[in-house]
Specification:
It is a single chain. The chain folds into three domains: 107 residues, Uridine Diphospho-n-acetylenolpyruvylglucosamine Reductase, domain 2; 117 residues, Uridine Diphospho-n-acetylenolpyruvylglucosamine Reductase, domain 3 (2-Layer Sandwich), CATH 3.30.465; 110 residues, Enolase-like, domain 1 (2-Layer Sandwich). The chain is globular, with a radius of gyration of 21 Å. By secondary structure, it is of the alpha+beta class. The structure holds flavin-adenine dinucleotide (FAD). The site of flavin-adenine dinucleotide has 30 residues, from α3, α7, α8 and β10. Flavin-adenine dinucleotide binds next to α3, α7, α8 and β10.
């Protein structure tokens, strides 16, 4: 993959940027729209770790896209026909919170990094046309502190607050959380429960993908094409008598889930379920949509018997393995328990926002 500027290395600039101890880059040469970076550390905040990581990162070229305009980036992909922005050869870090650890532990060895975090056009949270639109580069911290999310989409706040710790949430993006397709990540289950759609853009245009067609049966694999990036997440706006909640069990605060359950509901005026979405975290090779549990609730009142029936079906849909977070049996039991809690909380939120 050739990525040299047509103007060559016109200018050699060297500089060190440190922001709160998380960024240290020395820029070597320039490109009209991107910097070539010869040293690169993000999300790592102690010097010894940084030195170690820097040593490992000299092996492949890193470009930092410096323009804020997403169309320019797509056009750049088209005109330079670089092939894979995030396939086997190249990776595009956003917040870097999943990718950088993979690089540090040599679990990924791309031939190229193109850092897109400065595409600030993709940082927004707004309601329009009956949906919540979240730009793919919106940070977890922005979701967590958004009053729109707080009042209208509390399930999203539940989810963001459960992701790692404040430092990771300051860097990590919602798009990255989904595009990484880690079954242990928290947003996939919530987006499955909410019936979200994602927008992918590339040189061939824009497509809108239902979230259950975005994930695959394999971990870390999505249906994004190699030359596409995720640009937006769309969530149906809540209607009357709708509510959702996310519950996650973790060994300690900030850890990945032992198991997690997201539930989203809409009721009719008689209290019967007209929409049920249930998503599961970290209990299978990929994020799981508990379809049988959802279907069992349709047209039913959300009484204890139906809640427990749905929770049993959600547990049956899980495919946990045993690891240091717990045995398969324990994690399946936790899905059942968390599903009961998530459905009850969603019900309470659907009914006048009362708290359980
Ligand atoms: C200590 C620690 C604890 C963590 N705990 C949790 C946790 O409890 N829950 C949780 O959900 N996550 C957790 N994570 C993972 C991490 O927070 C999320 O996966 C993260 O937010 C990903 O977003 P990012 O922007 O950092 O993605 P990056 O690391 O930059 O990218 C991840 C992958 O997605 C691709 N990508 C990113 N953005 C796009 C895009 N717009 N279009 C196409 N591809 C894209 C990248 O190419 C890369 O392959 C943890 C991470 C750390 C370091």
């Amino acid at each position: 993959m050739a990525l040299m500027s047509s103007t060559g290395r016109a200018e050699i600039t060297k500089r060190l940027i440190t922001e709160k101890g998380f960024v240290a880059v020395a820029v070597e040469a320039d490109w009209p729209d991107a910097y070539r970076v010869n040293r690169y550390v993000r999300g790592i905040n102690d010097d010894a770790t940084a030195r170690d990581a820097l040593a490992g990162f000299k092996r492949f070229p890193i470009w930092m896209w410096r323009n804020t305009d997403v169309l320019d980036f797509i056009e750049w992909l088209r005109t330079h026909n670089t092939g894979l922005p995030h396939g086997d050869e190249a990776k595009i870090p956003a917040g870097g919170q999943s990718l950088i650890p993979l690089l540090r532990f040599r679990l990924a060895a791309p031939s190229l990094l193109i850092d897109i975090i400065r595409l600030s056009e993709l940082e927004y949270i707004r309601e329009a046309d009956g949906a919540l639109h979240i730009g793919a580069l919106t940070r977890e911290a922005a979701l967590e502190t958004s009053s729109l999310v707080h009042h209208r989409y509390p399930i999203l706040r539940d989810t963001s607050k459960g992701v790692a710790d404040p430092v990771v949430r300051n860097w990590g993006t919602v798009g990255g959380n989904l595009a990484h397709a880690d079954p242990a990540n928290d947003h996939p289950a919530t987006m499955l429960a909410l019936g979200a759609r994602v927008v992918a853009e590339g040189p061939d245009g824009k497509r809108v993908i239902p979230i259950d067609a975005f994930f695959t049966d394999s971990p870390f694999v999505t249906t994004l094409q190699p030359n596409e990036i995720l640009t937006e997440i769309r969530i149906p706006a809540p209607t009357e008598r709708s509510g959702g909640a996310y519950f996650k069990l973790e060994r300690k605060v900030g850890d990945y889930a032992i198991a997690g359950v997201a539930a989203s509901l809409t009721l009719d005026p008689d209290g019967l379920v007209t929409y049920a979405g249930i998503g599961l975290t970290n209990v299978g090779p990929s994020p799981i949509k508990a379809r049988n549990a959802e279907q069992a609730l349709h047209g039913k009142p959300l009484d204890d018997a139906h809640i427990h029936q749905a929770a049993d079906l959600a547990a049956a849909a899980s495919q946990p393995g045993s690891d240091r977070r717990g045995t398969a049996e324990y994690r399946r039991a936790m899905v059942r328990t968390l599903c009961v809690r998530a459905l009850r909380k969603a019900l309470a939120r659907a009914r006048e926002g009362e708290e359980l």
